[in-house]
Amino acid sequence: MALRLAPSLFQKIPPPIGLAPVPTAATTMSDTTPLDFHYSEQIFDEQARSLISMCAERDIVLLKDIAQRLGLSVGEELEDTIMKVILANAIKAKIDERAGNLHVYWYFQLAFGDEQWKLLSRSIDVLLGRLAKSSEYVQDCIKQRHQPWQKSDAYNDMDNEAIEGEDLNEEDEDAEEVSQD
After folding, report:
1. Which of 1, 49, 94, 130 is the most buried (most CB within 10 A)?
2. Cα-Cα-Cα-Cα dihedral of 24, 26, 27, 28, to 10°?
3. Is the CB of residue 140 less than 8 Å from the CB of residue 148?
4. Cα–Cα distances in Å, from 92 out to 34, 61, 120?
5. Residue 120: what pLDDT?
6. Residue 93: which H helix or E strand, with range?
7. Alpha-carbon span 90 to 53, nearest angstrom
């Protein structure tokens, strides 16, 4: 006969099928995802957007200002909400409980403004330039593969530069001979 033990308070008990786990003393923030908590996903999204917009305005945000804007009390509930937003990779920040501040290092940009469009345009231009150079190189390789006895334009340019360099060296030697006489 097998001995069956009752589950411990600290043992994780899986939730019934179809229900999200409710945080207990046995669970930690790393055991749950930000949306597994008792309030709805829509409320969390609204709170996350509000927090992100506050982080976009300032690098250091007072916890009491965050609590007021989110409609939460300063304490565990506010810290849990901030931690969920951090775990959702919407912001990178550190909570300073002594000073009552949230130090923001990075935040997810909610809007795509003119500056982001210009940066994207420059990045695309650079990538297209690199792609054009690569395409030329591939075409030269294919051309040389079909006609191995002919050098590609790139090799001809290198040969021309080498020949011009040799001519300059010969002129320098002639000039040195004249100056020595």
Report:
1. 49
2. 110
3. no
4. 15, 13, 23
5. 87
6. strand 91-96
7. 11
Phi, psi for residue 43 in degrees, rounded to 5 = -65, -40
**Looking at residue 112, what is its pLDDT?**
74
The pTM of the full predicted model, rounded to 2 decimals, is 0.43
Could you give phi then psi for residue 157, rounded to 5 degrees? -65, -40
Question: Is there a contact between 22 and 15 (Cβ–Cβ < 8 Å)?
Answer: yes
**How many other CB atoms are there within 10 angstroms of residue 51's CB atom?**
25
Beta-strand pair 101-107/60-62: antiparallel
**pLDDT at 129 (0 to 100):** 94
Token code pair at residue 28: 């930690």
Residues of the chain with pLDDT under 70: 1-39, 148-181
Residues 6+ apart with CB under 8 A from 62: 100, 101, 102
Query: Any idea which residue has 């506010």 for tokens?
Result: 78
Burial class from Cβ neighbours inside 10 Å (0-12, 13-18, 19+) for residue 52 reads middle
Nearest to 50 by CA among 103, 91, 17: 91
Task: State how far the Cα of 41 lies from the Cα of 48, in Å rounded to an integer.
Answer: 10
In this predicted structure, what is the pLDDT of residue 20?
46
